[in-house]
Every structure is written in C-alpha cells, then in structure tokens.
Automatic annotation (TrEMBL):
<keyword id="KW-0414">Isoprene biosynthesis</keyword>
<dbReference type="InterPro" id="IPR001228">
    <property type="entry name" value="IspD"/>
</dbReference>
<dbReference type="GO" id="GO:0019288">
    <property type="term" value="P:isopentenyl diphosphate biosynthetic process, methylerythritol 4-phosphate pathway"/>
</dbReference>
<dbReference type="Pfam" id="PF01128">
    <property type="entry name" value="IspD"/>
</dbReference>
<keyword id="KW-0808">Transferase</keyword>
<comment type="function">
    <text>Catalyzes the formation of 4-diphosphocytidyl-2-C-methyl-D-erythritol from CTP and 2-C-methyl-D-erythritol 4-phosphate (MEP).</text>
</comment>
<dbReference type="InterPro" id="IPR050088">
    <property type="entry name" value="IspD/TarI_cytidylyltransf_bact"/>
</dbReference>
<comment type="pathway">
    <text>Isoprenoid biosynthesis; isopentenyl diphosphate biosynthesis via DXP pathway; isopentenyl diphosphate from 1-deoxy-D-xylulose 5-phosphate: step 2/6.</text>
</comment>
<feature type="site" description="Transition state stabilizer">
    <location>
        <position position="49"/>
    </location>
</feature>
<feature type="site" description="Positions MEP for the nucleophilic attack">
    <location>
        <position position="180"/>
    </location>
</feature>
<dbReference type="InterPro" id="IPR029044">
    <property type="entry name" value="Nucleotide-diphossugar_trans"/>
</dbReference>
<comment type="similarity">
    <text>Belongs to the IspD/TarI cytidylyltransferase family. IspD subfamily.</text>
</comment>
<protein>
    <recommendedName>
        <fullName>2-C-methyl-D-erythritol 4-phosphate cytidylyltransferase</fullName>
        <ecNumber>2.7.7.60</ecNumber>
    </recommendedName>
</protein>
<dbReference type="InterPro" id="IPR034683">
    <property type="entry name" value="IspD/TarI"/>
</dbReference>
<feature type="site" description="Positions MEP for the nucleophilic attack">
    <location>
        <position position="242"/>
    </location>
</feature>
<keyword id="KW-0548">Nucleotidyltransferase</keyword>
<feature type="site" description="Transition state stabilizer">
    <location>
        <position position="42"/>
    </location>
</feature>
Amino acid sequence: MEIPHRLPPLATRDPQRRTVEFRAMRPMRTTAVVLAGGTGRRLGLEAPKQLASVGGRSILARAIGAFDAAPQIDEILVVMAPGHLAAAELAAGPYAKVTAVIEGGASRTDSTRRALSALEARPDGERVLFHDAARPFVDGRIIAECVAVLGDAEAVAVAVPSSDTVVVVEDGRIVEMPRRDSLRRFQTPQGFRLGTIRGAYERALADPEFTRNAPTDDCGVVHRYLPGVPIVVVEGSEQNIKITHPVDLIVAEQITSRENAPGSAD
Ligand SMILES: Nc1ccn([C@@H]2O[C@H](COP(=O)(O)OP(=O)(O)OP(=O)(O)O)[C@@H](O)[C@H]2O)c(=O)n1
Ligand SMILES: C[C@](O)(CO)[C@H](O)COP(=O)(O)O
C-alpha cells in the first residue's frame, strides 16, 4: 500500500513499506474521534456545552452513542476540555467502544493533533472520523456512508446545501455573491485515511502561517496543505445541527421530543 503524503526518510523507506504491507493484511479499523475539547463560549453556560442535557441525555453522550451504535466503527476516542475529564468519562461509561478519554488543546485543530498523537502507533491505512461533540444528532446513514467512501478515497466530508444566499462581506459591504447551487454548509464527521491527515498536519506545522491563521476544521487543513487530495462529499442532514448559540438548545429539545413519539424509529 502506498503512503503518498507521509514519506519516511529514504534510508528507512523500504523497511517501512514492508511494515505497511504486513499491516495492510489486517482488517482496516475505523476509529471515531469525538472532539469535545471546547468550552462553548458562544452558548454561555457555566460548564462546557457538550455536558448540557437535551432530552434527558448529555450532548456528549448522544454524540458518543451515535458512533457506538454504528457497526462500521471499531473504537471511539473522546477528546475533552481540560478540567472536565471525569465528566467525560462518566458520559462515555455506557459505551463499550470508547477506549480512551484524553485532554484537548487550545483550538479544535490542537485537539485533533492530540488525537493523532494518541493514535500514532496505528497504520497509515486505517480510517479515522473526526466528529464535533456539539453535533449530537449525527445519524447512522451519515456514518456508514463516510466509512464506505474511505474504502477508496483518502478524505470525506459531510455537507448540506445552503438554504440562504451566502455573501462575502468586507468593511460592511458585499464584495462577492457566489452562486448558491454550488455552496454547501459543512458538518461533521470529517474522515480520512490516517496517513493523509497526518501528512496534512505535518505540512501545516512546518508553515508559520498555520498558527496565525489555522483552518476551522480538519478538511480545511487537508484542503490547504494537500490540495491534490480530493475530498469526497456525503450528503448531511438538517438534523445534524451544531449546538452553538442558545437557540440551538431549543431546536435540540424539539428534535429529541420526537424520540419517544409513537412510530419513531429512535
Ligand atoms: N479547543 C477545542 C475547541 C473546540 N473543540 C470541539 O470542536 C467542536 C466544534 O467547535 P465549537 O462548536 O466551536 O465548540 P466550542 O469551541 O466549544 O464553542 P465556542 O467557539 O462557542 O467556544 C466542538 O465539539 C468542540 O468541543 C475541541 O475539541 N477543542
Ligand atoms: C467543523 C465544523 O463544524 C464544520 O461546520 C465547523 O467548521 C466548526 O467551526 P467552529 O467555529 O469550531 O464551531
């Protein structure tokens, strides 16, 4: 198996290749990383928003539970905001696929990097999905499609069409009005072959501009630092909302109110 973006030094390339070929014979594992390292400043609660309850269960537990229930996922790694690891371990308790709860970093990309360090012994060919803990309503269809895409592709994203017209504004004035039919709003999970996301972050860390102006998510890192890698897009869902502002909690309660309704599949 080729490792296109993460070439070892020439002297060690052959032994590395033999190792990778040996590992490629193992079934390809898929790890879900639930990113819960943020504090939820825009929501404004006392504790990080992922610990808040909607419909009687924490947002974090719901996000973990979605991946635990997905047969395509072998293992879950939770990245939690510093100072709240015990609460995350409690939320993760019922879910057998969670193998570790680790501390997050100062930004989302720092938290991803910590997850990549925790996975450093894994072969480059394995699949990893990064998911916002703040998106508790990701569904099994989205997870299954992302994992399936990574059978062939190196990167996958989830997106929905924009129902609003989106404009670019600078200094209070519109400077661009892109055609709406090609615009999408990004959701998570965002998935990669491990070698691809490692390679993208290796290049990012060599760029002094990265710390000043980091992309907002992992697809952004791949898109900027490995521009030749196609990122396949899977259709998301309007229910896969990111709980960001107080109004999102009201919407989330509404979504959960259907869970126990007669005829509900949840
Ligand atoms: N240092 C960080 C920052 C964010 N995240 C995670 O990335 C996801 C998306 O981020 P966002 O919705 O912005 O969460 P917060 O950073 O917590 O929110 P805010 O920006 O309002 O503080 C969340 O699940 C969040 O926990 C993370 O793992 N580590
Ligand atoms: C990853 C993401 O949820 C895709 O929409 C988004 O980029 C996260 O942005 P945030 O500002 O960290 O919420």
